[in-house]
Write a structure and sequence with these properties.
Blueprint: E1 2-10, E2 39-40, H1 42-55, H2 61-65, E3 77-79, E4 82-91, E5 94-100, H3 102-115, E6 133-137, E7 143-146, E8 149-156, H4 159-166, H5 174-180, E9 181-183, H6 186-195, E10 199-205, E11 212-221, E12 228-235, H7 247-255, E13 264-266, E14 277-284
Parallel strand pairs: 5-9, 6-8
Antiparallel strand pairs: 1-12, 1-14, 2-4, 3-12, 4-5, 4-12, 7-8, 10-11, 13-14
Length: 287
């Protein structure tokens, strides 16, 4: 089998919904059950890719993704959930910061290892953090404000981490990541991931009177623009009868959806108001 990792950088806000109400939010975003970190389920990512492939009239769609009825053969591609890596958080000490935590970085390292990518970027280890301290690049130090939290920053060498994260997006260069990357402890990150995502109120207007329709008010949660997620891809040989396509050709079909001149994928709802546009960058793994 052939493997790859796709970085998904949200250029517009993204709403991949759960289809059910939780608490006061009518339309919450998808989250991992055990951490409550935002994510996009693999089925939604795969569906978005299939829609893109169908729109381009490729003759290999059923061979890669499987037939619509699912009765003759399975697809030849396995797509994981899109996992969160960098969350943009507003800050009083800058226009915003890209925030992550040790647990996310350790999970990225495990995914790198599974795909045969260079996973040595955490070998130096990260010292334990309490709720009032944060790690930043060795070029920055002082006080930092994220949402309602104040941190005392500690400067450490994050160059290896920055190098690996910047590989996942052409929108994030090493210079900007050096200035904006912040590592907080896992508990603080969980709080930010739960309460620092935008929640917008929506209404419906009566065409005749131009006033709000009674009862037509709902609240929708989104992932903000400039969020970085990633998903993993595993390609197998074709399962279609009499097909001789190998795993490398299947993977090439999928990656051809994201050429250098237009590497974009629309995920989630509200496509007609410009939401869900992600810029895709791929990293190839080993067999």
């Amino acid at each position: 089998m052939k493997q790859a990792m796709l970085g998904l950088f949200t250029e517009t806000s993204l709403h991949a919904g759960t289809g059910q109400m939780t608490g006061v939010i009518d339309l919450p975003i998808q989250r991992e059950a055990h951490t409550e970190w935002p994510c996009v389920y693999g089925s939604a990512v795969k569906g978005a890719m299939r829609v893109l492939a169908d729109s381009q009239d490729h003759d290999w769609v059923e061979e890669v993704f499987g037939p619509e009825d699912g009765n003759t053969h399975a697809g030849s591609i396995a797509i994981s959930d899109a996992r969160l890596l960098l969350l943009p958080v507003r800050s009083l000490t800058g226009h915003f910061k890209w925030v992550t935590c040790p647990a996310l970085l350790e999970r990225l390292q495990r995914d790198y290892r599974r795909l045969g990518l260079d996973d040595s970027f955490l070998d130096q280890g990260l010292a334990p953090l309490d709720d009032t301290h944060a790690f930043v690049s060795k070029e920055k130090e002082g006080h930092l404000f994220l949402e309602e939290f104040r941190f005392q920053t500690t400067s450490i060498d994050l160059q290896e981490i920055i190098n690996n994260i910047s590989q996942l997006s052409s929108n994030i260069d090493e210079k900007s990541l050096t200035e904006q990357l912040v590592i907080v402890n896992n508990d603080i990150f969980s709080h930010l991931a739960r309460f620092a995502t935008p929640v917008n109120a929506h209404i419906k207007i009566k065409n005749e009177t131009k006033i709000v329709k009674p009862g037509a008010l709902w609240y929708e949660e989104t992932l903000p623009a400039d969020t970085l997620l990633y998903t993993t891809i595993v390609a197998f040989h074709s399962r279609k009868e009499k097909s001789e396509k190998e795993d490398d050709e299947i993977l090439e079909h999928l990656l051809s959806l994201f050429p250098d001149k237009r590497p974009y994928l629309q995920i989630g709802g509200n496509e007609t108001i410009g939401m869900g546009w992600c810029k895709v960058k791929s990293l190839r793994g080993e067999e």
